[in-house]
Amino acid sequence: MVIAVLFGGGGATHNQDPQLEDFLMTRLPLNPVIGHIGMANDDNPDRIERVTRRFRELGGKVMHLPKEATADEADIWARGVDAIYVGGGNTARMLTNWRKTGIDRVLTAAARRGVVLSGVSAGAVAWFDFALWDGGGAGYQTLAGLGLIPGSCCPHFTTEPARAAAFRDHLKRGLISAGYAIGDGAGLVIDGDKERTCIVARPNSGVWHISCNGADLCQTDLPNASVAP
């Protein structure tokens, strides 16, 4: 049973949308340990500092997993955290690293133990069967994620029109399975087999389930788990 709170963009790494981390903390025990992964942004020190400061303000402790970590080191790290928060950046590079080192198996085992999955952008989409990413400048492409959450996922749906259009086009062409589009300042909330919901911290943002029925797309708003002021 996967438990996840996944953000389309913004949040602590960009000093925006504090309601997102506030909400994540409601899914965790008192004084939780947050495991942070910054491999997608090459362990950007500013982002590490922002995430550490933000969760410390909320009463949490952050344990950062260095980009050079081995699977054995990651396993020890993962057994001491209540949630795993993955930063944004280069999705393909991050997934390649996880598979090359065996960290993918560590993260899968952690999710199955009940560790809460979280993250922003690349850190949101990596958990799905398929992710849509920007191809490192080579055009939008489909990536195979860890497969912990069925379907596909697209971040930045409300702020990057070309990405949103590419996601719809991939669905219509059958290149990607039905899934979730997450706007910046919003998050997809997954609690096992319960109904998918969302958290919204910005006006005009949200989370949508999008599927293809023949030549037509069906886009459905997810209900709010909590609407931030």
Largest sheet: 8 strands, mixed
Q: What best-fitting shape do the alpha-carbon axes yield?
A: globular
Strands in their spatial order, largest beta sheet: 3-2-4-5-1-10-11-14
- Cα gyration radius (Å): 16 Å
Count of alpha and pi helical runs: 7
| The CATH architecture | 3-Layer(aba) Sandwich
Number of spatially distinct domains: 1
Characterization of this structure:
The structure is a single chain. With 229 residues, this protein is α/β, with parallel strands linked by helices. The chain has helices spanning 18-25, 45-57, 71-78, 91-101, 103-113, 122-125, 161-172; strands at 3-7, 33-37, 61-65, 83-86, 116-120, 128-133, 141-144, 149-154, 179-182, 186-191, 197-200, 207-213, 216-221, 224-227. It has an eight-stranded mixed β-sheet, with helices on both faces. The chain has a six-stranded mixed β-sheet with strand order 7-6-8-9-12-13. α3 runs parallel beside α5 (103-113). The two termini are 30 Å apart.
